[in-house]
Design brief:
Elements (H helix, E strand, L loop, with lengths): L25 E2 L17 H26 L7 H30 L5 H12 L6 H24 L9 H16 L3 H9 L5 H33 L4 H13 L4 H11 L13 H7 L8 E2 L3
Antiparallel strand pairs: 1-2
Protein name: Metal-dependent hydrolase
Keywords: Hydrolase
Enzyme class: hydrolase
Length: 294
Amino acid sequence: MNAPSKIDLDTNHRSDPTPSDLTITVRDERFNRDSTPRRWWAGEPFGTAWHNALSATFPRGEAFFIEAVKAHREGASPKLEAEIRAFVRQEINHTREHIAFNKLAEDHGYDIKKIDTRVAEMLALTKDRPAILNLAVTMALEHYTAMMAHEFLANPKHFAKADPEVRQMWQWHAIEEIEHKGVAYDTWIHATKDWTPWMRWKVRSLIMISVTGRFFSNRWKDSMNLLAQDGITGWKARWGLFKYLAWSPGVVRRIFPAWLAYFKPGFHPWDHDDRALINLHDGEFTDALMQPAE
């Protein structure tokens, strides 16, 4: 059990935010090189559309995360430097696998290029803004991936009836998102070490509110578009997606407490050590190339 941490208003004076014995392992896995069912999520369109919409954003999104973190690594401690290197290697592998997965979705007739184009247009708007804001956005979105990763691994209902290989890919991705969930945040602490705790808390909270609005608005539109390509429109599409997200299995409803915790003064992603979930699933990837953080 971790020793209690001393916390000021925000994490500026927190002595041990990330577990000292954390190992970020790069698992060089490959999935979905052959074929998957069109409706891979239990033959059901709503879960399929939601996850296809998410996956379509990952290649450009994760490249953005990598650059945002790398831009602030100068002067980092040796421990954080090693964690950033492992984070980058994990995210590169995630990008490769989601490119392969997205290709299969396109092979099944889904047009996801519109999603990719909009992500590219949104990222183009970040070029001229302060790099620290890109890191704050990355930190907020990494919290989203960590929340969903925890829920996917903790609640087998999410992928119980999914295509086995697709389920393995999402589990593998979730394991590594949990493992590196503190890297962007610790980089933020390092990069804003001269800020007041109040300023740090205010900026990360405002950015999370902004990110949340865009995240759900855009993912909803993307999912609606993909459902329309499946011939599902109108109230049937809206009600079906709402039920999937809010009721059963209800990923949005279930992650709400973790989302709310982000606004707590002194918050850190490792306030909740959920590495036990990794141990439950990691044995499925015993053939992976296991490489500890350098």
